[in-house]
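Quick start: read one record
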Amino acid sequence: MDCELLTVGTELVLGFTINTNAADMGRVLADAGVRVRHAASVIDDPALVKDAVRAALDRSGIVIISGGLGPTRDDLTKAAVAELFGKPLRRDEALATRLRELFRSRGVANMPESNLVQADVPEGATVLENAIGTAPGLWIETNGRLAILLPGVPKEMRALMEKEVVPRLIERGGPAAQTHGRTVTRSRTLRTTGIGESALADKLGDYQKQLGEHVTLAFLPSVAGTDLRLTAWNVPEAEAAVMLSRADDALRPKLGDRVYGLDGDDLAAVVLGKLEAARVKLAVAESCTGGLLGARLTAIPGSSRVFLGGVIAYGNDAKLQMLGVSADDLAAHGAVSETVARQMAAGVARSLDAEAAIAITGIAGPIGGTPEKPVGTVWIAVKFRETERAFTHVFVGDREDIRGRAAQWALDHLRRTLATAS
């Protein structure tokens, strides 16, 4: 079964609101074995909405639309789709009563009259009950062409997709779609860091031959690293996991220790897990990252079992007074140097009585660089028991990118040190 997605909202097209609905709908539909052929966004303009819905129906026969079902003047999706299908809007009195009761249950005795427009339903449409909001979903089908209208509020859209839309689509697909033998699209993501997209591609060579006919590989680079997303397309549900495992096994020998996790694994959580297994406590000293590394670590539930704390030693005086960095070394080598990074790691480990430590000092920009130490220059020092190491990088990007890359690389340097020094 094929379908298309249409998200409606001027705020989406202008970029003021991140379009999470399209991503959420795509994932849910893939799990249900429904293939999304096309996805688009349009502003709150009834003519454009109507054109986009018509084009989607001509291509695929099914379109799922989110947004534009509210009570305000810019919520025009329902009227536009009803006009396209030639279905007049009729007031559903049972739905109007439900809306009034919903407002009363929330302590509002007199519902705004504008909300009654949400009780207007295209003639012949099926109402999909929205248990947590005021805008119901709508299922409009004529001559084999199906439009499904959902509210734009992400939480409401997700609930309707899971409880109302997907079961109906599976039923619509017939007996084959309702059995465990139905086809699905499933993905697995190998998370790598410390290596660029092109270098990964070189390592993998002609990877498609290793993956098989139904599995593809996508490279997803970011500040944190490059994710490798394996996707098994339109395969029997019982075989999807096996195909992905085989593809995973085929790639890993070429990737080595560049892979640090799967799917939603966070590198900070991976490092904390290894330290906890070794019964080692961690402390950090940060300069240019200004607490970003500590924030990454404390965002992980249970991090207090391992992470003792950190020192943000941004200025030179803080490095001297709080971490015991040598004034002579600061004067001779500068704050962004190997010797200062090593002393920062040793100082915070000593101060907090930690066997593991990370220190970061660098130039995040956009000013402060020199020909010898350009913007993006960062020194990272890591300590694990008796092992101490230091690394230098020149990161690219803006200030946010440089700080993010520094925190990620710092975690990865400690991960690798733990693996070799254990």
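The chain has 16 helices and 17 strands.
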